[in-house]
Amino acid sequence: MKQCGASEKQKGQETLASIFTGIIAFYKYLMNEEHLYRNPAQIAKPDCRHFIKDAQVKEARRLTEVQWQYVFDVALAMAAEDPIYERSLFVICALKTLFLRISELSERSQWTPIMSHFWQDSDGNWWLN
């Protein structure tokens, strides 16, 4: 039985990551076409036993609840003073309540976010396509 060297394992990891990237992109397309409401590949990827986990634990950098409350209070006060800041308040609320990353609300060369990308399900929950 042939033993895999470190570079061969790395190539295998890159291949696996590429496959998952393609599958995730396909499911995102299906979600955008409203054939699906969730991306099962994104849910499955962290649980895939074939991915080698990093030796070091990476701590996610997130705002604390106190920090979120402060940001929200400032944005709310600014929006109350001047309607031009209502968009900022909307973005802050969307990031927090929809658990979005900034990149999911930002304009890119192939995607410009518009209000119709948000939709409400039958239970009254809001989602971003």
State the gist of this model.
With 129 residues, the chain is mainly alpha-helical.
Q: What do the pLDDT scores average to?
A: 79
Structural class: mainly alpha
Order of helices and strands: HHHHHEE
Shape: globular
* Number of helices, counting only DSSP H or I runs of 4 residues or more: 5
What is the strand arrangement across the widest sheet? 1-2
Can you tell me the residue ranges where pLDDT is under 50 for at least 5 consecutive residues? none
N- and C-termini, Cα separation: 47 Å
How much beta, percentage-wise? under 5%
Q: Biggest sheet: strands, sense, closure? A: 2 strands, antiparallel
Tally of DSSP β-strands:
2
Number of domains: 2
Rg over alpha carbons:
20 Å
> What helical percentage do the residues reach?
40-55%
Secondary structure layout plus pairing:
Layout: H1 6-32, H2 40-44, H3 65-81, H4 86-97, H5 102-105, E1 118-120, E2 126-128
Antiparallel strand pairs: 1-2
Can you put this structure into words, describing what you see?
By secondary structure, the chain is mainly α. The chain folds into 2 domains: about 10-50; about 60-129, no CATH class. The chain is built from 5 helices and 2 strands; from the N terminus they run αααααββ. The chain has helices at about 5-30, 40-45, 65-80, 85-95, 100-105; strands at about 120, 125-129. A two-stranded antiparallel ribbon has the order 1-2. A hairpin with a 5-residue loop joins strand 1 (about 120) and strand 2. Helix 3 (about 65-80) packs antiparallel against helix 4. The radius of gyration is 20 Å and the shape is globular. The mean pLDDT is about 80.
